[in-house]
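Hey, I was hoping to borrow your eyes for a little while. A protein chain has come my way and I'm curious about its shape. Take your time with it, there's no hurry, and the full record follows here:
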Amino acid sequence: MEIEALVRQIVVQVLKQLEQESKSPSAGEPRGKILAVVTGGYLGASDSFGAISKLIEEGFAVDVVLSHAASSVHPRDALQGQLRGARVRLETEVEHPYSLVQNYDLVIVAILTKFTAAKTVLLLTDTFPVAAVIDALWLGKPVIAASDSAELEGAPVPLDEAARCNLDRLAGLGVKLVRARNLADAAIQCLAGGHPANARFSDSIKKVQTGDKRDLPVPGESSDRAIGLPRLGKGRVIAREKTSSRRLITTLEIREALTGSRRIPAKGALVTPLARELARDLGIELVDEEEKCA
């Protein structure tokens, strides 16, 4: 019995040592790889860029990608000079987001705008920042976003609630929302503790695609957080405009086709530009395609 107890203690100590070594990067290796997506917002930008600099100082490898809108607000040359040690590129210089985010341990949206938040909760992956967030969540990668530019504090109540509604739904998909000044600490904590694949995102995707509203907030419930239906007071809801009944093909449908026939019936459907690009890259055929989505 004494020998068995001794062996057990040795095994425990060896396992602890192996676990510690697995958490400690080898000499010269970064503590983790982070993709920082920058949009055209400006509120909290200074704090977010300071957070990126801190992450670099802490030993993380950070690659920065500027969206089309960001390149006119935050010039790349100036940002490259500010973020020494980071690689700063334009979205036109990188591969498709689905392939890109696979190379990183964490995706951060350094400046989340109202526009990007709204399009993400509606799964409209026709811009680089939205596609990067959706693809990261799809792959089980953690996503952290600085929400300073996505809020409408001080605006009329309906507008403020609409913005908060989008942020609530974004958090429900698995995006961790923080203030820009807390971005670096949130990223360090996330990578130190690991991040399990977020099953809620896949479930939410299926619910949105199939129209299943179970477990999703609906108008009239206490949360009052249905997409596009902000409340105007007790019992009053802004009416949603009637939308087209035509089917929309996004990158989500393209990825799902990888496990099937690799052919998608597209007659009469609208195909987003990113979906078309991803289909071409992955060899997915769009059959009887009639009209492009502008």
